[in-house]
């Protein structure tokens, strides 16, 4: 029997039970947006802030991936505390909570404070993510062109906001692969033992501060617009100002395909492309309907 069953009832039940146990962390009542919304499309943020029911709810596979990430985080929290306890001059604050701008709130994974002789206290904001094996390989350049994509832009922006809120000297974005790189592949690409399962990217204040300020302003702006009564369909489907893949102020014109367009003031097309984000958006069908409505009104 090599062919898998089309009715996997035990795996199905397990996954369903798992998905019921996922809850977003709490935050104060006077806050509206979360740090995890970093880099998201402005309209998607508006749908979430206005409590719009998801037209495309997270499926079981999505819950599974998120759940694996949480499980890894929980397991590693103790390890990081054990490490800090064994170091004379290191303090670790896990799940560090913070206000972001006027209306935002965040839970940073770890704040590490090191007391270094002759230097003083150095604050390191550590944001840790997990990623599938394929995505991880692309991040560190294990592909045909040896092109390292680096961390996801949204992870950097989220970490940048947290780092700016605590005035960190260094922002570290860490990624752990949910599937390690084979020994052979690591050897062929001259990667070390640790790089087979994890990698870090480091950013100084000069590198993260501007991005953090822009994103906090953007998310506060969306939140204010929703509070004033603007509907998500009135919020342009735009992304972060400094998003390297989608030039600001390009807008998604076809949510069902993730197609975006950038027009000049005279109406001529300047640039166009697609984003994977729409296919993972919980409001894709709703957004398609809203976009069609806007287009038919403008026609
Ligand atoms: S479907 Fe795309 S454009 Fe629409 S809200 Fe979601 S991410 Fe934004």
Tell me the number of strands.
9
Q: Please summarize the sheet with the most strands.
A: 6 strands, mixed
Estimate the global geometry from the Cα principal axes: globular
Total helical elements = 8
> What are the secondary-structure elements, in order, as H or E?
HEHHEEEHHEHEHEEEH
User: What share of residues are in beta strands?
Assistant: 15-25%
Short overview:
The protein is an alpha+beta fold and 299 residues long. Helix content is 37%, strand content 23%. The chain has a domain at 53-214: Lambda Exonuclease, Chain A, CATH 3.90.320.
Please, could you describe this protein's structure?
Helices cover 37% and strands 23% of the residues. It is an alpha+beta fold and 299 residues long. A hairpin with a 3-residue loop joins β2 and β3 (104-116). It has helices spanning 9-20, 42-49, 60-85, 133-139, 153-165, 183-188, 205-227, 284-298; strands at 33-34, 90-100, 104-116, 120-131, 170-177, 198-204, 251-254, 259-263, 269-274. The strands form 2 sheets. Strands 1, 2, 3, 4, 5 and 6 form a 6-stranded mixed beta sheet that branches. The model has no long low-confidence stretch (mean pLDDT 91). The chain has a domain at 53-214: Alpha-Beta Complex (Lambda Exonuclease, Chain A). It contains 8 helices and 9 strands. The structure holds iron/sulfur cluster. The site of iron/sulfur cluster has 12 residues, from α2 and α8.
Entry keywords:
single chain; 299 residues; alpha+beta; Lambda Exonuclease, Chain A; six-stranded mixed beta sheet; 37% helix; globular; binds iron/sulfur cluster
């Amino acid at each position: 029997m090599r062919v898998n069953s089309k009715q996997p009832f035990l795996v199905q039940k397990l996954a369903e039970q798992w998905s019921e146990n996922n809850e977003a962390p709490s935050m104060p009542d006077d806050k509206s947006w979360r740090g995890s919304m970093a880099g998201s499309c402005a309209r998607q943020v508006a749908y979430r802030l206005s409590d719009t029911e998801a037209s495309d709810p997270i499926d079981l596979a999505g819950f599974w991936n998120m759940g694996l990430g949480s499980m890894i985080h929980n397991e590693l929290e103790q390890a990081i505390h054990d490490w800090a306890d064994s170091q004379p001059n290191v303090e670790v604050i896990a799940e560090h909570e913070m206000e972001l701008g006027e209306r935002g709130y965040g839970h940073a994974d770890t704040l590490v404070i090191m007391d270094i002789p002759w230097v003083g206290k150095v604050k390191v904001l550590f944001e840790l993510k997990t990623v599938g094996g394929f995505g991880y390989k692309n991040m560190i350049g294990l592909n045909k062109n040896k092109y390292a994509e680096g961390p996801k832009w949204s992870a950097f922006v989220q970490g940048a906001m947290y780092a700016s809120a605590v005035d960190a000297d260094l922002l570290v974005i860490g990624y752990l692969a949910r599937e390690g790189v084979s020994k052979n592949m690591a050897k062929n690409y001259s990667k070390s033992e640790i790089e087979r399962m994890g990698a870090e990217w480091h950013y100084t204040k000069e590198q993260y501060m501007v991005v953090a300020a822009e994103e906090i302003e953007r998310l506060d702006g969306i939140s204010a617009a929703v509070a004033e009564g603007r509907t998500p369909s009135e919020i342009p489907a735009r992304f972060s100002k400094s998003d390297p893949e989608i030039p600001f102020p390009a807008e998604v014109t076809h949510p069902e395909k993730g197609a975006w367009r950038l027009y000049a003031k005279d109406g001529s097309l300047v640039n166009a492309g697609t984003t994977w984000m729409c296919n993972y958006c919980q409001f894709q069908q709703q957004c398609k309907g809203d976009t069609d409505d806007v287009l038919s009104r403008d026609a």
